[in-house]
Amino acid sequence: MERVHRRLTRASAPYWQVAPLALVFAVFFLVPLALTVVVSVWRYNEYSMTPALVGSNYAAVFSGCVAELPSLCLTFKTYLSTLRLCACVWLVTLVLGFTVAYFLAFHVRSLTAQMVLFLVCTIPFWTSNVIRMISWVPLLGRNGLVNSFLHSAGLTGAPVEWLLFSNFSVIVAFVHLYTMFMIVPIFNSMSRIDRALLEAARDAGASGWQTLWNVVVPLSKPGIVIGSIFVVTIVIGDYVTIGVMGGQQIASVGKVIQVQLSYLQFPLAAANAVVLLAVVLAIIWTMTRLVDIRAEL
Amino acid sequence: MREGRPAVFFWLAAVFGLFILFLYGPIITIVVLSFQGPSGGLTFPMNGLSAHWFSRLWGGLGVVDIWAAFGRSLRLGLTVMALTVVISVPAGYAFRRGFRGASAVFYTTVASLIVPSIIVSLGIGVQFRLLDDAIRWAAEATGMAAVAEGFTTSAGMFTSGLGAHLTWTLPFGLLIMFAVFNRFDPRYEEAARDLGATSGQTVRHVVLPLIAPSLVGIGLFGFTLSWDEVARSSQAFGSDQNTLPLELTGLTTTITNPEIYALGTVTTGVSFLVIVVSLLLIHALRRRPARGESGGGAARR
Fold first, then answer.
1. Coil, strand, or helix at residue B39?
2. Predicted pLDDT at B121
3. What's the pLDDT at B56?
4. What is the mean pLDDT of residues A2-26?
5. Total number of domains in chain B
6. For residue A154, is it left (φ>0), alpha (ψ between -120 and 50) or beta?
7. Which pTM value belongs to this model?
8. Contact assessment for residue A17 and residue B91, using Cβ atoms and an 8 Å cutoff
9. Stretch B26-53: mean pLDDT
10. Does residue B266 lie in a domain region?
11. Cβ B271–A126 below 8 Å, yes or no?
């Protein structure tokens, strides 16, 4: 009897072990997502939302998008500029993250040094993003270090205005904040590469670049894809970085949703969120065709 | 050791060095600038050296009760830290053993990490708004008009806010547990079982002490991610319950003196303190001689 009881609790153990986690995600992630979809077809006024099944919120999101073609409607324009921003940030973080990971994985020989340098790269991730954004102000501002350097070097007459509160500063901040998300998975993939493969490539007469391009890059692909998913999904839905570093002047998909929320237009914001979610899922779906995430952990 | 480095090493080392400068340079700048003299501004040059802006910060920042926000963030961060560890570890166990629906839970976890924070925040905001309506309606329907009158909202720091933060910290916790158990040698457990340990004893005296450094790591993620969270919190906290980073984000548009740098220095100081303590603890736990007796394991959760 005792035995049977023990075996039963053993068999059920994983279920109660995972229950708290599953419960948190059900209550604070799945239900809210479902409610977002539901509310996106509700009616609303300044005070309240009323259950309904109307497409007016989606019509508002896409208003003029078909009629005004070939010129772009507001939503398409916003998506286009957000995606362009995504592409810029993705490219810079990928090249930079790959280079840093490559240096750590293949050129730092002692394991301790590798660990220490890796930690040095990750520590800022545990500090405040907003502070790390603000910290660019004394550097990029009108009277900032970069401008005073350019001025004293005689390179510019007047202060350069596009350094801060511009697309430039937004990209700088994103690269500053999120290159870590590229470094970690790429480094993880690279440290699994068998060094004998590199030697084999060299012995077979491959140049350094050929080895890099034909051996290291393909074998780092899982890390590259995971890092890319992180960076792209963070940038596409962002409104904090774009807000602070863009001086609240630059439009983005996340910013649109945030502004609608501040006016308590929940159903409209929800419709925008559903569209954004669909775009994000499409991007992730495309990327995960390229790699099996689960096998990489 | 000195067999000669290829030229490319020095190029890469230079890139790496510049990257580190890029990572740390700005934050060092604002730490330095937060010690501006009383007449100093937001940029260089330094007009003297003082703790003036810290003493102004100590006195509070006008309408914003910054120290209340500080306290709230600290309490919430510690709660999130504890819950992240306590929830992630058994979940990691469950995934190791396998269960029906494992991949659904796994993909939900990953989704929680990569669905844009503004959507999660919006969803939680809507959820608690609807919950409030339901509570008010139920109170009126059952004749408790006084309750309906006095009721404001169910959203708050330890309801919606805590939930929002957990959707962000738990994925990190679970992924770390995956990494831990992928590298864990099951022979330690087999040996414990062979020596007659029950499964509870094996967990407490063998597994937990061995994975203790990683548990500290999960706690580190739990606290720091909560301490700095903005995007998910925006819709998930009651309006008078803002956390420190939320107040800070608001202040970026209104404050035009080094007080904000002083605040930045203080928050970053807290983060660094937590990071250093965690890393030292991890280091100490790793170096700890592998003793056979139970004392070492029982002292930790």
1. coil
2. 94
3. 82
4. 81
5. 1
6. left
7. 0.89
8. yes
9. 83
10. yes
11. yes
How long is chain A?
Answer: 297
User: Which of A 63-92 lie inside 8 A of B, CB atoms?
Assistant: none
B108 interface with A at CB cutoff 8 Å: yes
Q: Which domain holds residue B275?
A: 64-296
Which residues in chain B are closer than 8 Å to A32, comparing Cβ atoms? 120, 122-124, 126-127
SS3 at position B36: strand
- Could you read off the pLDDT of B114-134 as tens digits, one per residue? 899 999 999 999 999 999 888
B118 part of a folded domain: yes
- The answer to whether residue B115 neighbours chain A at the CB level (below 8 Å) is yes
Tokens of B278: 């965690």
CB contact under 8 A, B116 and A276: yes
| Poorest-pLDDT segment among A53-62, A282-291, B77-86, B133-142 | A282-291
A interface mutation test: which of B18, B115, B128 has the most A CBs within 10 A? B115
- In chain A the domains, ranked by start, together with CATH numbers, are 1-38 (no CATH), 72-296 (1.10.3720.10)
Residues within 8 A of A (CB atoms), B 26-65 only: 26-27, 29-30, 33, 42-44
CATH of the domain at B157: 1.10.3720.10
Is pLDDT of B112 > 60?
yes
Tell how many helices (H) and how many strands (E) occur in chain B.
Answer: 13, 0
pLDDT (tens digit per residue) in A19-68: 999 999 999 999 999 999 999 999 888 778 888 888 889 988 888 787 87
- The Cα A235–Cα A231 span in angstroms is 6
Q: Which amino acid is residue B268, in one-letter code? A: T
pLDDT for B36: 85
Contacts of B253 (CB under 8 A, 6+ apart): A248
CA distance A84 to chain B (A): 17
Fill in the amino acid letter for A153.
Answer: A
> Does residue B134 belong to any structural domain of this protein?
yes
Average pLDDT estimate for A266-292: 89
Say what the pLDDT of residue A164 is.
85
Q: How far apart are CA B224 and CA B80, in angstroms?
A: 10
Domain annotation covers residue B154: yes
Enumerate residues 259 to 278 of chain B having a beta carbon within 8 A of any beta carbon in chain A.
260-261, 264, 267-268, 271-272, 274-275
Contact between A25 and B9 using a beta-carbon 8 Å cutoff: no
In this prediction, residue B292 has a pLDDT band, given cuts at 50, 70 and 90, of very low
Cβ-contact A4, A15 below 8 angstroms: no
Residue of chain B whose alpha carbon sits nearest to that of A280: B115
Residue B275 tokens, joined: 């990071």
Residue A296: what pLDDT? 55
**Which residues make Cβ contacts (< 8 Å) with residue B127, sequence separation at least 6?**
A31, A32, A35, B160
Look at residue B294 and tell me whether its pLDDT is greater than 50: no
With an 8 Å Cβ cutoff, are A297 and B264 in contact? no
Residue A236: list chain B partners with CB under 8 A.
116
10 Å CB burial of residue B67 (0-12, 13-18, 19+) is middle
In chain B, what residues touch A103 (CB-CB under 8 Å)?
12-13, 15-16
- Looking at residue B124, its pLDDT comes to 95
